[in-house]
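Sequence and structure are kept together here, with a separate record for every protein. An example record follows, reproduced without changes.
>
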Amino acid sequence: MPNFITNIFKNVIGKLSGNNELNKQRRIVKANDPKFNEQFKYANNYVKTSKYNIITFIPQNLFEQFQRLANFYFLVLMILQFFPQITSIVWWTTAVPLFIVLAVSAVKDAYDDI
């Protein structure tokens, strides 16, 4: 009887620790040997930390810029100034500062992303 309990205990502990004798295999790892490691189909360790690429920079950056309330407010104000019935000043008085702020922010974001 004690032998039966010992076998059950070893089997349960072995399965919990991943040390199952039925499915035990030896694993060989060779560092800096890409030819050898390709046969195991390991996951790629490529890490991408950039937010933008050349194609998505302008649309994604403008989307992020206009999520800021001040930038969106000045965009709406500039659009409303195109209608002569509701404006008292020319449209470029709002457009030029808005474009300068957007350009400086875009240059800063591009520099941070590189």
Remarks:
- The chain has two domains: 2-40, 57-113.
